[in-house]
Amino acid sequence: MNADKRGQKIRVHPRLSASNYWLVMSDILLALDYGGTKLSAAIARRDEREWLALERVMSPPNKDATWDQETMRALARRVLNRRAPIAIGISFGGPVDAAHGRVILSHHFPGWENIALREQWQDEFNVPASVDNDANVGALGEFTFGAGQVETLYATSLPVRASSLLYITVRTGVGGGWILDGKIWRGADAMAGEIGHTIYDPRGPECVCGRRGCVEVMACGPAIARDARTRGLQIDPLTGESVARAANAGDPIARAVMDDAARALGFGIGTAITLINPTRVVIGGGVSKSGERWWSVVRASARSNTLPQIRTDIVPAALGDDAPLWGAIALARELI
Q1: Class at the top of the CATH hierarchy for domain 12-134
Q2: CB under 8 Å to 49, separation ≥6 — which residues?
Q3: What's the pTM value of the predicted model, to 2 decimals?
Q4: CATH dotted code for 147-318
Q5: Model confidence at 157, in pLDDT bands (50, 70, 90)?
């Protein structure tokens, strides 16, 4: 550790030459989000609610872990712009052993089997890092900064934070994360919240997990596109987003596809509500932007699959696509 002529401490990055040092900014946190369709990196000061810098890159269809890491390192350096973080929070789109900072695997892309992701980033910047799956991190982000705020029973009272929250992300897959008593609940095997792999139709399509009729294989973006193709919907390009637009424009095939996907998701949500009875369910991810009809079917399906006494509300994510990034900031804050 050296000092400049003003007495400010300078840290020489261990992987860079002495002439290319990084200036320590004592309150900057680095947030990384490894998504299925895009990678995102951002920085924020630990006590502020806006980004100092944010970068995203869309992923190619044939990507792997090597591409992810090379691209994410470039994004991190771009947002940092020669500044150094004091901690790093990481959201990953797949099963994660958070206690040991390891990615277990990616269900969608190769090369991520048993990867020490936390250690790689700690080595990269010589600062503490924390990693968890994107649904857990998104849940923490919404709980801390977004839809975790709920109205009280009294009009003059300020909103309070929900004591329990289920966050669901619906994009390339369907993931879920629990916040119970203000903390991430990971479960005995770090697999809590896998709502996408609860069963909706035992005779349905085969899921990436090897079983049939999971909520994910019925309700995620690629599943919507697959079902639309099977039913003969003529759209180019044929994606979950384009099917949703066609449904909102009144196309009967697209509407049927979106309704079926929404029913499958709502059924899974109803099961989760019945088991845990959270204060709030928050839904984010690209598919959650499919319009009011989609939301209406999701809510109706959830209500039909839970007890009438349960009053859990189901709301959109307040932070949108940034929920995992803000959750990564919350992870990083916990480290310091």
Answers
A1: alpha beta
A2: 145
A3: 0.83
A4: 3.30.420.40
A5: low
